[in-house]
Amino acid sequence: AKKKKKPKLLNKLDKTIKAELDAAERLRKKGQVEEALRAFEALVSQYPLSPRARYGKAQAEDDLAEKMRSNEMLQKAISTYDEVVHLPNVPSDLIKLSLKREADRQQFLGRMRSSLLTLQKLVHLFPSDTSFKNDLGVAYLLIGDNSKAKKVYEEVLSLAPNDGFAKVHYGFILKAENKIAESIPYLKEGLESGDPGTDDGRFYFHLGDALQRMGDKEAYRWYELGYQRGHFASVWQRSLYNVKGLKAQPWWTAKETGYTELVKSLEKNWKLIRDEGLAVMDKRSSLFLPEDENLREKGDWSQFTLWQQGRKNENACKSVPKTCALLERFPEATGCRRGQIKYSIMHPGTHVWPHTGPTNCRLRMHLGLVIPKEGCRIRCAQENRTWEEGKVLIFDDSFEHEVWQDAAASRLIFIVDVWHPELTAQERRTLPAI
Q1: Nearest to 418 by CA among 278, 246, 205
Q2: Where does this protein have coiled-coil stretches (predicted)?
C-alpha cells in the first residue's frame, strides 16, 4: 500500500509561528483542553489570518464540548471550523479536515441539512476525491433522499469502479427499491472488498435476505460471517437493535415468559376477540391494511392494528372496544414500544419470506382465532408449529421465521407483542421505540 502522505497543514504565515502552534497542540494532545483553548485563542487574536491557529481553536472547542457534554460549545466549534475555510491561503489538506469534521459534528447534533451543505461544498471543492462523495451519499440517505444518494454512488462507481463503500451503499439502495437480483453483486463485492465502512450488520442482513429471496442457500454463509463479525447474536437471530444478554430462544412457553395472566386472559376470551375482529372484517374491511414491509412472496396478508409502539389507536379501538378494554390491564403489551397489538388475516396461497424482526427486546404472542384444519404453519429457526383456535403460541421474532398459508380458507390470528421478560423497568421506560 502507498504510504499515506502526511497532510500539509501549514501555510507560509503558520510556518513562522510553528513553535507556538506546536506548544498549544501539545497541551491539547495531553488532554489539557482548557489551557489548549486559551493558547489557541491567544494565537488567533495575535494572528487572525492564521488558518492553523483557527483550526486548533476549533479542535480545542470540539474537545471541550465532549468533556463538558455541551451542545452549545460544539456549536462554537462548528462555527470555528467553518471560519478556517474562509481565510486566505488555506492549505487544501486543512480545508478538507475542517469541512469534514464540521459535517461530522453537524450530523452528531442532528443538523442533517447543514451537514449536507457542508459535504456539498467539499465535493464541489475536491471533485476527484471520491471519499467526500461517499460521505455525501450517506448524508442523503440520512435525510431519506435515496434517489439523490443513488446518483452520488453511481458517480463514485463511474470514477472508482472498485470502491467497496460505494458498492455496499448502492446495493443497499437497490435492495430498498426491491431490485433484489441487481442488489446482490453490489452488496457481495462491497463486503468482500473489506473497505472501511463496509463491515456493517445491515449489509450482511440485506445481502442474506436478497439471496434467500432468490432461493440461494449461500445466504447462510453470509449470515454466518455476519455472526462471526459480531453483527448478529447467532446465525438464526439477526435483529440489529438489541439489548445484550437477554435469554435467546425461538419458542417460549407462557410460564417461561412470566406473563401467564395475559395468556390466560387471551385464551379465556378468545371468542370475544375473534367475534369483534370478524365484525370489523365484515363491516369495515377497509380498516385491514395490507402488510407493507414487502415480506410476502405471494398472496394476501392484511392487518388491523390496535397498538403501535406503545400508542393506542383510539379510532381502531372504537371498532373492537371489548378487546381493547381487556388489553388495557396488561402494560407489558400495551406499553411495549418495540411492538404492536393487531389482528392479522392471511388468505390462502400466501407465503411469507423467511425474515427477522428488528429487535430482541420483545416476544410475540399469536392467539389462534380462525384456523383452517390444515395448510397453515409457521417456522421459527428450525422448528415448525401450527396454530390452534383459542390457543396462544409464543416466539421470539428476532429469530428467522417463515409462514405458509396453503389452506382452503382464510386464517385469522391476534398478535400481541410483549416486552422481553428480562428487561428491567428502567429499560422498558427508556429504550427508544421501534
Answers
A1: 246
A2: none
**Cβ atoms within 10 Å of 408's Cβ, excluding its own:** 9
Q: In what order do the strands lie in the sheet with 350-355?
A: 296-298, 350-355, 401-405, 376-380, 383-385
- 284 pLDDT band, cuts 50/70/90, is confident
Q: In whole angstroms, what is the distance from residue 406 CA to residue 411 CA?
A: 10
Determine the Cα angle at 425 with ends 420 and 430, to 5°: 90
- Could you read off the pLDDT of 211-270 as tens digits, one per residue? 999 999 999 999 999 999 999 999 999 999 999 999 999 999 999 999 999 999 999 999
How far is Cα 300 from Cα 411, in angstroms, rounded to an integer? 11
The residue among 293, 281, 274 whose CA lies nearest residue 347 is 281
Are residues 235 and 285 in contact, defined by beta-carbon separation less than 8 angstroms?
no
Residue type, 433: A
Map out the domains of the chain with their CATH numbers.
1-124 (1.25.40.10), 127-232 (1.25.40.10), 251-430 (2.60.120.330)
